[in-house]
Write a structure and sequence with these properties.
Blueprint: E1 27-32, H1 37-52, E2 60-66, H2 72-86, H3 93-100, E3 103-107, H4 113-130, E4 135-139, H5 146-155, E5 167-171, H6 179-190, E6 198-200, H7 208-218, E7 232-240, H8 249-253, H9 256-274, H10 283-296, E8 305-308, E9 310-315, E10 318-320, E11 338-343, E12 355-360, E13 367-374, E14 394-400, E15 404-412, E16 420-428, H11 429-432, H12 442-450, H13 459-478, E17 487-489, H14 495-502
Parallel strand pairs: 1-2, 1-4, 2-3, 4-5, 5-6, 7-12, 9-17
Antiparallel strand pairs: 7-13, 8-11, 9-10, 11-12, 13-14, 14-15, 15-16
This protein binds 6-O-phosphono-beta-D-glucopyranose.
6-O-phosphono-beta-D-glucopyranose (BG6) binds near residues 173 and 260.
Length: about 525
Amino acid sequence: MSTVTTIASEAATTATKVLPSGPAPPATLVIFGAGGDLTKRLVVPALVHLVQAGKLPDEFAVIGVDHNEQTSEQWRQNLTKITQAFTQAGLDERAWSWLTSRMRYMPGDFTQSETFSRLEKLLAEREEQDNTSNALFYLAVADRFFGPVIEQLGHAGLTRQSDRTWRRVIVEKPFGHNLVSAEALNAQILKVLSEDQIYRIDHFLGKETVQNILVLRFANGIFEPLWNRDHVDHVQITAAETVGVESRGRFYERTGALRDMVPNHLFQLLAMIGMEPPISFDADAVRAKKTELFQAIHPVSPENAVRGQYGSGVVLGRKVRDYRHEPNISPDSATETYVALKIGIDNWRWAGVPFYLRTGKYLSARTTEIAVQFRQAPYALFRDTPVERLPANILTLRIQPDEGLSVSFSAKRPGSEIEIDGVAMDFAYRDYFEPIAAVGYETLLYDCLIGDATLFQRADTVEAAWRAVQGLLDSWARDPAKDFPNYTAGSAGPDAADRLLARDGRAWLPIRADHPYKAIRP
Ligand code: BG6
């Protein structure tokens, strides 16, 4: 979290980290996977936005590395068109020419040491040209290359730092396929790099609204006293998507919704809601609290989990085929495209408060949100009134789309009788703040350049997250689902997910992209 919004109270500044908001220090960004989707759709557009915001220094350069033979000019030309589509509010020609004049391409095989010798020469040229040896290596490559590329960087001496030079590596998701492979990858890369050189990305933390959760919780006096098992009944975390597996069949078929979304993205949301207050925004202070939370998660058992796979249906008015008929998917696939979990956190703050998590492809609406449902008020006072049920207060944090938050509460309907209606106070980002052109990677890239690892995963954090779901992964692998497909594309997911909550006397909030509280009535 690099830039810090002014907080009214002076006292609050002790808890905020004041970091440079100007340009990052001189550096070279080396992108492995320069021809890939991630580079085109997210990394390069984010760089353009950083240029526009004045966050990159004059002494900045990008070296793109990939298997394809092409010239720097061809690489830049290929990127121009696609960047036009992905930068928001149109491509700023000045920013684009500033950036492209600093971009060059180097064809190379990531598994060959010769590639890294050539890279070393290019970095030496950068030293002569801009007097900087700082380098950020971005592994925008398939996960099987993470270990090998880092080993090659190490062999070539490219990860060596000095008093005036830093070398850092960004590792993309997925970080491991399970606990054992995550541990092995950590062990492999920690032979070459020290922990503070490794930036394990989870792009959910690049979302402004996710970062805001900590400020909401800890810079406001009204929430924290209620943020515990005495007042919170349960929490629902939803990441519903209206996309299907699309062209990612090969990856998705061996991954599934649990691995793809839970120990990473959904757990990041869980951490923001559940962690204890860190003593500062320092990377280690924040990451220690997150890790403790993950370590306190009760390993998820199959009885507290529901898996689903979409059948054919209609999503946002479009007819779509079932998962098993998607490209590169087995006709009898047992891969889940939906998962719902009940999670327990064994600590003093949360013992006994269930956290219900759900995510799925091809659901009825696209929405990512967290709903904190508070305990109900005692009913006695209303026994002799027509009020049959008191609605619970719910604080909903809308992560996307329509970023904002709402608090629902009960109000008396005007009239002579005591009748209660559920109403909401709503805050929408767009009503208060100018939208910032962003694809979600801007803060993350800038933070790597200034050396702030707050929003990145530490080795033990990643491992603790895998540990919490490993038993479930094993159990599902041993016992493939027999009822797939079990939800219709365009629906809210499998019926079993409703039963998971019904058994506790609770229900999911509706999945909808607009404000949910209009639907809540006593
Ligand atoms: C990715 C997953 O990490 O996150 C995708 O691999 C998923 O399957 C995506 O669709 C969701 O991210 P966002 O930012 O679109 O909500």
